[in-house]
Amino acid sequence: MEKQTITFTLNGLPVELVVDPGARLVDVLREELDLTGTKEGCGQGECGACTVLVDGQAVNSCLVLVGQVQGREVITVEGLAKDGILDPLQEAFITEGAVQCGYCTPGMLLSAKALLMKNPFPSEEEIKEAIAGNLCRCTGYVKIVKAIQTAAARQGNCSTGS
Amino acid sequence: MTLKWIGKPVPRQDAGGKVTGATRFMSDLSFPGMLWGRVLRSRYPHALIKSIDTGEAARLPGVVAVLTHHDVPGLNGYGIVVQDQPVLCSDKVRYMGDAVALVAAETKEIAARALELIRVEYEELPGVFDPEEAMQAGAPQVHATGNIFRHTAVAHGDVEAAFAEADVIVENVYRTSRQMPAFLETEGGVALLDAGGLLTVWCGSQYPDRDVIQIARALGMANEKIRVIANPVGGGFGGKDEVTIQIHLALLAMKTMRPVKIVLSREESVVTGWKKHPMVIRMKTGARRDGSLVAHQVTIVSDTGAYASLGGTILNSAIEHCSGPYRVPNVQVDGYCVYTNNSVSGAMRGFGVNQVTFAMETQMEILAEKLAMDRLAIRLKNGLQQGDKGALGNDLVTAMGPVPTLAAAGATDLWRQREVYKANPSRPWKRRGVGLAAAIKGCGLGFRLPDFGTATIELLPGGYFRVGVGCPEIGQGNSIAYAQMAAEVLGCPVDQVEVVTGDTAATPDSGTSTASRSVYVAGNAIIIAGQRMRERLREVAAAELNVPAGEIDLCEGLAAAGGKSISYTQLAARMLAGGKDCRELGRFHSPKADQEIAGAYGLPHLVFGTHAHVVLVEVDTLTGQVEVLETVALPDAGRVINRQGLEGQSEGGTLMGMGYALSEEVVLEKGVTKTLNFNNYIIPTAVDAPPVATIPVEVMEQTGPFGAKGIGEAVCISITPAITNAIYDAVGVRITELPANLERVLAGMQTCGIR
After folding, report:
1. Residue B14 with chain A: CB contacts under 8 Å
2. Fewer beta carbons below 10 Å: N end or C end of chain A?
């Protein structure tokens, strides 16, 4: 397909790219923009390793074409920390031991982020449902679920406090 | 001994980079001028190659190189044990994953198009896809050497006489499925030849130092001209122990003189990659009325697929563990590792022990039932103890965990109150059951192979230390265990220790990150290197403080004696002054058994980890679906180095073994893989995942670092039969074939009249 100018917001900053609009978002992120935090594990939307947020929705970036994010807001794992301060989810993944090989971690974090943005006090079942599309082969999910609970609790405390 | 860092829940040092996306995996790397590589795979599971025409592909604009077997300068073969797998096939293909040609092109799209333009003329051959058929006379021959790659026959005691004395005999055939590692990061990486003639290959691997040897052999290069880096690795589970794409990357980089990247698609990874050996296991087990096992006769036929890799060694590991964690005085085993035209089997978490333990732990349940004994009591009665003989007559001289681990399993609430847990299924048509099983798994490489750990510790400016160990971090958490062990020995805060793994230019060869070995061997090496570093620190501190070295206490980053102290920061300034370096190396050789078991290459192991599981399942009698509701995992890893890390292994292993029990199966039809991706190769998701309560059983291993032993594989073994035993407890269906999917459970319920 002929290249076109695509503009969108990426991790809070405007970007303008001249690309094939039919290119997969995961490829544009990884290869054009060198944002390799977004991983590819299956290429067909089954494993969730490539999960990013588009307008706050968790999507598989292997199933999204870059033309589809024209004018929208994309957040990748590189955009979770703000000014060097980790997101509570990132903090909790470290302290709860939710990271092993780490290849599923970015996608997990973003699915969890999408959940907490919509539902700050999710039940365990809601957490499991939210990350059901993110496969992890190392952890057995136990500590990932715990980390999301911990982050939710922390955020809850913060919002109560402020 | 008061321990400062051992056993503490120290967060992993690599987690920070992994949660921000800053960490680059090998498949994330790119370089200016980089080309994309692709591999042309076979079109048939078994065929002769008549001709390969690369002309049209080579002429496609943007294609930089097309390579065939003619372009392999050295040995056109690889394999950890025997080099029976061609780097690029010349005259014959033996499975669908065989590599026939390589392409390097300016873009991925051009590389893909070039593959389509390579003309390969094949003459298809009849294939052999059933390992038992492959053993018959007249079967199609996968290799000229015959289809039986290894036959191991071992016996201990007099099985026939013992069966004659047995009060009860149980005989069954068990079939296990082809499970795949399903690491989330597929095989991927980059190779680059630099101006100095050094070829660097960045690629996910479990043993970069051996990759160097295999690359060098195929390329006809000196080992010293090759560097392999595998840090970090997005999951291994055995599937990255053998070479995957390293030699292909190296060939393309040498030919094009440009950086070349290959990342396998999930589908290509599934077709080509190393998987768990499917086995057909015939087991006949005899016991006395009091439950004591007297005789065990086992035949194993193991499908290694088209190439051997570690198939022979895995067969022997299965044989060594064929009586599970139990004592049997008379054992006879006949095992065959057989070539077929199926997908290749190799190392995968458990190394042959999952299969036989599933079989043995089912035999134990049937024996208990026939003898009207308690399922736990028969296990405790026969549990292996230090001083016993193992299945092959080997003396078990190290600490053995089965009895305390089983006892701890028996003491769990889930086991003691099992009738309460079973009493109220969630729906009237569902039934609940509780199952129990245990496993042992040898740590390390066994009798024959050199089994060593090597570690370097370097003093850095500021009083920091860098620990180098070759065994890659593949997610299991060896790095944080190394940091904690080093901090303990060096007497410094753990955050003053950094760990480097998996880089042949920066870390000493410490063997492979497999076989539940990396904490055991490298931990011991770190202790040796650390003690040497302590002596150096003490010597310099003694001179500075003017006290005898023997009086100096090293703690919290300080060398102190008689009320005086000097910090490691100050010591480092003295010791590194003038650009000196201060580095110590420790090397540990694993102790071996007194003698090899006759006729069984590489056996026995000396040190064993133990694991038990208790599970609660709920079976839907309408659909056959099995849900795992609760699990208790009881690992005996000896001394726990990092509780959080152990739990992570235990929880992840539990889920992997649950997938093996219930859903995971790579399906092949006449050599063609049907389950190519996660849409129909079903690994458990967060919704399927049960709670896992981990209860460590610390049976100290005298030869282990701080008493630790390996556990990375045992964690995924006992869960499988614990689940199938729980299914029997729930609905009376005896699972003898894995996985226990809906169809099998449903069919079983129909046979036994539940439906």
Report:
1. 99, 102
2. C
